[in-house]
Amino acid sequence: MRRRAGAAHRSLPATAEQLAFDFDADSRALAEQQYERGCEMEARSPIRACEAYRHALALWPDHPGARINLGRLLHEAGAADDAEGHYRRALAARPDDAVAAFNLGVALEDLGRRQEAVEAYQRAIALDPAAADAHFNVSRLLEKLGDRVGAFRHLKAYRNLTRS
Q1: Which of 34, 98, 99, 143 lies at a C-alpha separation of 20 to 30 Å from 68?
Q2: Would you say 73 and 49 are in contact if contact means Cβ atoms under 8 Å apart?
Q3: For residues 4 and 43, what is the distance between their CA atoms, to the nearest angstrom?
Q4: What is the C-alpha separation between 133 and 154, in angstroms, rounded?
Q5: Per-residue pLDDT tens for 92-141?
Q6: How far is 54 from 57, CA to CA, in rounded Å?
Q7: Ramachandran category for residue 155: left, alpha or beta (phi over 0 → left; psi -120 to 50 → alpha)
Q8: Residue 137 belongs to some domain of the structure
């Protein structure tokens, strides 16, 4: 009996779907390994850590941890503009990440974009009201922008959070 081409094609979507799922799971697992490698390498070799994070992102472009950590290392190396892009991608993938929002604020502040930095810090505070450093940073910026009431409010929050 002869097989029809249509019969094989009907079973293809399930097979293709399974292959895509397996590939995605394998890629994410490999990306996670590269991310962990990057975390381990940071103290000894920031350059190799960056390479590991880039490998992780090649496998899983929206890996939030790799985006944040690579952004931070680039920022520390003086590339605040590159860091900004990584923090924004991390927030796109994980909108509730207070660390990404805070780091974005620091990068924007270093780029001289004060109002955008205030917005990023305020987002970090909305996500994590106990983010003392975000309160402190937004307090400084609001004072520079002429909002003394807002600056005082955040400075007070900072002091309340850091009392021992």
Answers
A1: 143
A2: yes
A3: 60
A4: 10
A5: 999 999 999 999 999 999 999 999 999 999 999 999 999 999 999 999 99
A6: 5
A7: alpha
A8: no
Show the domain range for 98: 11-129
Please check whether residue 26 lies inside any domain of the structure. Answer: yes
DSSP helix, strand, coil percent of the chain (3-state; round to 5): 80, 0, 20
pTM (predicted TM-score): 0.83
Spatial neighbors of 97 by CB under 8 A, at least 6 apart, are 64, 68, 90, 91, 127
Q: Are 86 and 107 in contact (CB under 8 A)?
A: no
What is the CB neighbour count within 10 angstroms for residue 110?
15
Buried b (16+ CB within 10 A) or exposed e, 75-98: beeeebebbbebbbbbbebbeebb
Q: What is the spatial distance between Cα 117 and Cα 96, in angstroms, rounded to a whole number?
A: 17
Q: What is the CATH number of the domain that holds 32?
A: 1.25.40.10
Whether 161 is covered by a domain: the verdict is no
Q: pLDDT of 12-67, one tens digit each?
A: 444 545 544 455 888 889 999 999 999 999 999 999 999 999 999 999 999 999 99
Contact (Cβ atoms closer than 8 angstroms) between residue 139 and residue 162: no
